[in-house]
Sequence to fold (317 residues):
Amino acid sequence: MANHFVSSYQKLPKKRCGILGATGAVGQRFILLLSEHPYLEISTIGASERSAGKSYAEAAQWRQSEPIPATVANMAVQECRPELFKGCDIIFSGLNTTKAQEVELAFAGFAVTGIVIPFAALQARFGRILEVSVVTLQALSGAGYPGVSSMDIIDNIVPYIESEESKIETEACKILGSLNPEKNQVMPQQMRVSAACNRVPVLDGHTACVSLRFATRPPPNVLAVEAALQSYISEAQTIGCYSAPAQAIVVHKDPTRPQPRLDRNMERGYAVSVGRVREDESGIFDIKFVALSHNIIIGAAGSSVLNCEAAILKGYC
Fold:
């Protein structure tokens, strides 16, 4: 948390926030992240029709290690209908993709966040990445609750997540792309991405094994890549977002790291951990590394909160 900006936060007017899908896994993270926020306050919470009218404590199957915040526990749950959220300045969504298509635009994929942040750091220093191969090991929480059956995932890996590979391959290029103001649309970066996605028996934290090739010849060496990752400063840090991590990317020298259980909560879940940075001796790619991100925090709820903070500080809302 960027504590050196706290005095400026006290001058910001509070924004009334609504949360769609507040009882789900991502919604519960929104509850925790916003419950003590200095200028974002929860005013309306929405969920399914069966939860509407109940108190949040009664409606939510709470699955977090921290208790339900007292400020929210007795709040009445609303249906996710636009007219019930008219009093909100900002609305966050924890809806799953199917329901989101009925109510709002869906999130970017949880897994892609953990790779595009290192990509952004590397491109800022070394120029465009041309080709990427990524194999993901994705946590159970990414499937929502109740998620994957225990009979399917205990002592097992499921080598398929519906639509996930195509999402990573297209969304990475969109996120790293540029905005065409004349057409008011995103122009994707020209980058070839090949993804293979697997569901693994880990609760939180998506791991990605990445191989990439730069346009720059000769490519940067391992020490230069590690330095670029470690020194990367995100825009959220630069403008002083309240939730921004002190370190956007944590580089591990220990060859056994990063690991979900040990590293997913780095910087309160807002950092990406990177390890095993090495040259690709086969010559097919230039650099290989392993990246780990908390799929529910920086991959979903936390990144939405950061985007909101940035929008407020830039005067967009």
In short: Residues 3-7, 104-109 have pLDDT under 50 and may be disordered.
